[in-house]
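ok trying this again, last paste got cut off
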Amino acid sequence: MTLLPFDDRDGTIWFDGQLTPWRDAKLHILSHGLHYASAVFEGERVYDGRIFKSSEHSARLVRSAELMDFKIPYSAEEIDRFKNETVAANGIIDGYVRPIAWRGSEMMGVSAQHNKIHLAIATWVWPSYFDPELRQKGIRLAISDWRRPAPDTAPTSAKAAGLYMICTLSKHKAEREGYQDALMLDYRGQIAEATGANIFFAFGDELHTPTPDCFLDGITRRTVIDLAKRRGIKVVERAIQPAEMEQAEQCFLCGTAAEVTPVGEIGPYRFVVGDMAKALMDDYSAEVRRAPAAQAAE
C-alpha cells in the first residue's frame, strides 16, 4: 500500500495566525513539544462541511493547555473561527481536523517557562478509522500490557501528547498479533478505554461504561450517552472489572475517529453486534449530520 506522507501534501495549514502552504508548515527540531511532550491536541470530524461539536473541542483544547501549565494565545471562540477558515480553505466536506498547541524552542530543558506557545490547525479527508466490513461484524481487541496512569501521576484530564505514548505501544502490539485495537485497563486493573476511544458494554437492556476518572470523558462518549438516553436506555457509569466482560452481550467503542464501532472480541471474551449497538451506530451517524440549530434545541 502506498502511503501519502503527511509532510508532503497539497493544501494549507493554519499556523500561528495565518494560512500557510502545507509543505511550509514546519517547526524547529529543538522545539520543547517534541522533546518533552509539552503539547496538547484535538481530533475532530467534519460532516457536510461542518465541524461536529467544534466549540466543545476548542474549549477542551484550551483547558488541556492550562492543565499542562501553558496558555494558548487565542480564545476558544477564535480557535473555532480559525478551524472553519482552514476547513473552507482546503475544501473539506467530510474529513478530519487536527488542532495542536505546543511549546516552542526558546528554552531547551525541563523548564520552559519563556517558550512561545504555537498553534496549528490541519484538516484532511479521512474515511472510517476502522474497515467498514470489520465494523459490521465487530472489531477484535487485545488486552494491553500497559495501564492508564493514576490522576496523581499525570494530567489525565488533558488531551496531552505524552499520554498517547502507551496507546501507540499498545496498538502496535495488538496489530502485530492480528487485532485492530487494544483494551487498556487503568492503574487499579479496572477497564478504562481503548487506545483512542471510550468503551461501552450492554448488560441486558442497560448500557454500562467506565467512570472516566483517569482518562478522557470523551466528547463522543457524552454524545452517545445522550443518544442512548433519548432511546430510553438506562446508562450506568461505574467501575467495571475485566471479568465482567463474560456477562456482557454487546460492546462498542466510540470516539471522534472511531465514531461508533461494534466490538466482537476482547481477548477471550466474545460479543454479538446486537440491536443496541446497531441502533446507536445509526443514531450517531444521523446526529453528526443534523443541523446545528436542531442539536442546540435539545
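PB: full thing came through this time. Residues 54-67 form the longest helix (14 residues).
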